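Sequence only, no structure available. Ideas?
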Amino acid sequence: MNTVITIGRQFGSGGHEIGRKLAEYFGIKCYDKELLTRAAKESGFCEEMIKTHDERPTNSFLYNLVMDTYSFGYNSSSYVDMPISHKVFLAQFDTIKKIAGEGPCVIVGRCADYALAEMKNSLHLFIYAEEDKKIARIMEKLEVTENKARDMMVKKDKQRQSYYNYYSSKKWGRADSYDLCINSGILGIDGTVKLIVQYIEDFEKQNAK
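Reply:
I predicted one. Tokens follow.
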């Protein structure tokens, strides 16, 4: 196994769980929130700040200005005029490239497919599902009402979409932005994992030729 897998996902589609199970199957690491901890460590930003900007583009000039006073690292001359949200994005971008350079792994979200666009041994997936399936999943996982689950789903996906479309040159959730898009609502989590495993194994055979 020498493929780096990136997973874009709709909120409630099970993308995180699918990533974990794939990593388990292949005996490799899965980075989701762990990526933030590492990006904080390597960039010198405090972890709270990285989490605040996680998959959210912040266009508020005032907010960026205020937060800039608290930023450490990434303050060399070329970075000084850059909004804090951009600095955080670049810190994550660098970390994604470093992690991928260390060997096969699964990276969930955070424009990882865009960061690794030039990497030959990488596969970029997008997981989505029907609305009712996602809402049911969110209700069960987070123990919230149907209305709350729907609100969370809409808000989270809006954030992810605007973050991705803001920082990458591609469109979030659009088939031509990825190598494979899968509706996890049809096969369920385990069925989707099985399908992706097959896809990865075939991809590796092709690459070995």
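The chain has one domain: 6-208.
Hope that gets you unstuck.
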